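pinging the channel bc i need a second pair of eyes. not urgent but kinda urgent?? the chain im working w is below, pasted from the shared doc
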Amino acid sequence: MAATVKIGDMTATIDGYAWTGDQPLVDVLSTMLDPEGPPSSDPNPDHTAAMMAVLRFGGRIVRYDKTDRTEGREF
């Protein structure tokens, strides 16, 4: 579930718990990710990482994929 952030005049997208986009923003945001991966209890870790980025550095989320809420599925 990808998410794209705009911080200052730079843009970065996280998809599959990996950042791509403008340097050096990608390098900075990548250091914020847990090297062991996202928690299994997080239904949308890419959106969570994007939220953490904009809370830390300002900016905004310009696009994100919503989590599919399937009936009977627990997170």
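so The mean pLDDT is 91. and The chain is about 25% helix and 25% strand. — does that match what u expected or am i reading it wrong
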